[in-house]
Amino acid sequence: MTKWYEPYLEVYEKPFADAPKSVIGKVRRNLQKLQSESPFVTISLIGYNEEKHLLACLWSLSEMKCKYPVEIIGVDNDSKDRTAEVFEACGVPYYTEFQHSCGFARSCGLNHARGKYHINIDSDTMYPPHYVETMIDMLEQPGVVAVSALWSYVPDKSHSKLGLAFYETARDMHLWLQSFKRPELSVRGLVFAYRTDYAQEVGIRTDIKRGEDGYLALQLKTYGRIVFVRNRKARAITGYGTVGVDGSLFNSFQVRVIKAIKGMTGLFTKKSEYKDEESNLIK
């Protein structure tokens, strides 16, 4: 049986010049049908040099099944490749953010959001058809101000299916356990959605290299609950990103296990403030 993301792999990790015009045309037409003048949800995609991934991401979003009116906007973080051209070819309104960092890019998207809810989207990630609807259904529950979902990795020849399954299962379990007391540590920007007005009020940090999503979640906790969504309808699929930084999947697993053990107390205690690491500050 074909998995939902398999058609999009035709253009994933491929130069935009190699993308079939038929695919670009289909994505553009589908997105035009989705765009609402009175959006309930703003979906903002951030990208820096994501020419090889952005079209696949937009293709997945263009085939979403959603009962809520949406607007889809882009943020080009001053890319040096054809990222902006992909947005243009697909008819997606976008903004250029010249200050480089996820924080600046996400802030740009949030500041232009018109919907009641704002959904973060990473350009190297593909999303299942009911992703947006599932996330907003949860956000519509009383007292919920933010939701974070899960993700899998694109299968390839360098990673065994069994190894990936074990890695993702262990990670998912840890994030779930952590979400009860410290949901801000289980949040990841590629699968994060929240109330636009509250987020605009507290803002997104732009002075750190990583963790702007967790910091935002920490601030949003003062307004209501953050819910961890385990529904497979909201499970995205992405590239190896930070996993690849540690080398093999096994090495990455070891690094994260050691970190999890050191932070074990976080599973049982709440926290309202964290100290910045000097190495994570943008100077």
TrEMBL record:
Keyword check for Transmembrane: no
Cross-referenced Gene3D superfamilies: Spore Coat Polysaccharide Biosynthesis Protein SpsA, Chain A (3.90.550.10)
A GO-annotated cellular component: plasma membrane
Subcellular location: Cell membrane
UniProt domain Glycosyltransferase 2-like: residue ranges: 48-162
Pfam families the UniProt entry points to: Glycos_transf_2
Main location: membrane
Keywords per UniProt: Cell membrane, Glycosyltransferase, Membrane, Transferase
PANTHER family: GLYCOSYLTRANSFERASE, GLYCOSYLTRANSFERASE 2-LIKE DOMAIN-CONTAINING PROTEIN
Annotated protein name in UniProt: Glycosyl transferase family 2
Organism listed in the record: Bacteroides faecichinchillae
Taxonomic lineage: Bacteria, Pseudomonadati, Bacteroidota, Bacteroidia, Bacteroidales
